[in-house]
Amino acid sequence: MGYFSTFLVYLFYGLAFFSVGCAILFRNFRYSKLTISHSLWALAAFSFAYAFYEWSELYINLFGDRIQEPKSTFIEWLRLGKLSVSFFFLLLFAWMITIVQARWLRRLMRSVLALACLSYLAILLHAVSTHSFGKEAIDNLENYSRFILAFPATVICGLCLISYGRQLTDDQKSYGRYFQYTGYTFLLMGILAGAFPMDVDGHYFYLRVGVAYCLLLFLYLALSVFDREKERLVESQLHQAYLSDKYKAIGQLASGVAHEINNPLGSSTLSLDMLESRLTEQKQLELVNRTRLGIDRAATICTSLLNYSRSAEEVTQYTSVNKAIGSALQLLAHKARGFNISVCGNDSISLFCNPIKLEELVINLVSNAIDASETNKDILIKIDNKVIDGYEFILLSVTDNGCGMDKQTQNKAVEPFFTTKPIGQGTGLGLAICAQITADHKGKLTINSTKGVGTTVTATLAKEI
């Protein structure tokens, strides 16, 4: 190729890989749930390193004949070093992305990558030990690096991306096909960059440039999913803020209503006291006692509602777990009719926590268990102590015999606004709130469920925050 063609080919070839690195670098993967998101930094490092290598090749191809010894030997070794570093980053990306494969295939692929790395290092050490510092020896080492490092790494990257794209497509993700196209492009790039020698005609270089830009295009389209993830995250946060304000207003309204109901309940209790003092017949007194029980129950519910509507910033204190469960069941009494709810565990267990939050945790867990179960089914609330890494924890679990969940649903159960309930019957915030409450108490929420059998949700809470 002439000077001008050489200049354009190397310039745009390096620019393609530099753009790949920028496409990855300027995206935020912090909140991404995609499996490969945490391994893309290695691909970005390879892209930048390889781009700088190609641009340095441009200078050497144009002006290499002007460089004299000993600078020429140093530059040749520098070229090999830059190329080897870039391929080691590619090897690292291939190693990390094998996480999308089955365990046996992952082990096989990583074994191939480890063998490739050790083989190249052995060849490199042999060249150093035999003082093979000539240009021909370094050119051979460069070809070895392409065949031993780049070829298996790009092939494994391609196979993993194709497999991952198919998994996404099977999950009805439209962007899965772009990951597949990126994988196919990796395979083609591996064949062109690793399997063929460098001393071929000029059309080969043009083909390499075309493949590099195809890689940039497909990877850019595949990575656009992270922009959509960020948009959905912002939308969900806005929606959650809207619901939070809405529920806060409802809580204030419920608090006011409960306060207003308490006044006539108090006067009704006084009237019953006066009536009871004037009655003498046993049957009449029994009727008064039944009426008093109803009023006392209504007053208890109003008191619980007032406590529940208080600010979540209430000072933490030692709280009886059993008492919090009792208050929660009082609020859920209307919903729990027809279900056999039992509490099992030590009644004396206490927890240093925000009592309102603990009550909210129980309400959400029991409410979900009721929604998942049929009438007359058993629901078990269990309290237990456990020592983990020298610290005391309280295990609060709710078990139902309801419809259960499959693995895919379990993985998404604690995501905000994810719900399997019909529209209008659930917000998808219940388990998300429970997970946040347990996290605030230095614990975690675990879900064990079997489709058609039932579900056990366990909140592990630190006894002292």
Write down the Rg. 34 Å
- Give the tally of β-strands: 7
Largest sheet: 5 strands, mixed
The DSSP helix count reads 12
Question: Structural class of the secondary structure composition?
Answer: alpha+beta
Which strand-content bin applies to the residues?
Answer: 5-15%
Mean pLDDT: 79
Measure the end-to-end span: 71 Å
What's the order of the H and E elements?
HHHHHHHHEHEEHEEHHEE
- Give the helix proportion (percent range): 55-70%
Written overview of the protein:
With 465 residues, this protein is an alpha+beta fold. Helix content is 66%, strand content 11%. The protein contains twelve helices and seven strands. The chain has helices at residues 3-25, 40-63, 71-97, 103-129, 135-170, 176-195, 202-278, 282-308, 321-331, 355-372, 407-412, 430-440, and strands spanning 317-320, 340-344, 350-353, 378-388, 391-400, 444-450, 454-462. A five-stranded mixed β-sheet has the order 2-4-5-7-6. Strands 1-3 form a two-stranded antiparallel ribbon. A hairpin with a 3-residue loop joins strand 6 (444-450) and strand 7. Helix 9 (321-331) crosses helix 10 (355-372). The radius of gyration is 34 Å and the shape is elongated. The mean pLDDT is 79.
